[in-house]
Amino acid sequence: MKSNKKNTFINIITDSFSAYKFVEPHTRYIDKKTGNTGYIACNFDSFDDAKSFQITHNPIDVKIEREIRLLRDFLSFIRLIILFVSNKYSVIHTHNAKAGIIARLAAKLSGAKNIIHTTYDYGFINLEENKIKKMLFVFLERLCGKFTDRLIVVSNTTRADALRYKIID
């Protein structure tokens, strides 16, 4: 069903491969079905062959990397706030752990009204041996969960982890 009102939405994901394989087809489908305009923000330099995964549907290059790099992460966070405030997206949809934390915090601070997060797993928490880091990751997921309007989990295992870590109730 087509909507009379044109809205814009943005998907934020860490790397171009996942954006190309999963997010871009979904974004095109939503655009076609609703008449709205979707954008895809990801890091086009996330790995050596990233350039071979060309996002052609309203791409926005954001430099969110998988590894934690505090200065770069902070700069990405500031750029995302500016992007969100400037464009006033109807929906901000984040994907995967790192982009999910940085972009949801930026969305909240920019006054976004509809924040959705898709989590594919909480493996980074399950595999973390450093107890302090693990507690920090759980804290950040819980914090962001408080202002996430919808959380999409892709498996029963991921749902069980979200419940076990009290990320959702």
Structure notes:
This protein has 169 residues and is an alpha/beta fold. Helices cover 47% and strands 19% of the residues. It contains six helices and six strands, in the order βαββαβαβααβα. The protein has a six-stranded parallel β-sheet, sandwiched between helices. β4, α3 and β5 form a beta-alpha-beta unit. α2 crosses α3. It is globular, with a radius of gyration of 16 Å.
Compile the SSE list and pairings.
Blueprint: E1 8-15, H1 16-34, E2 37-43, E3 59-61, H2 70-87, E4 91-95, H3 97-109, E5 115-119, H4 123-127, H5 131-146, E6 150-153, H6 156-164
Parallel strand pairs: 1-2, 1-4, 2-3, 4-5, 5-6
**Helical proportion, percent range:** 40-55%
Low-confidence stretches: none
Structural class: alpha/beta
Question: How are the strands of the biggest sheet laid out side by side?
Answer: 3-2-1-4-5-6
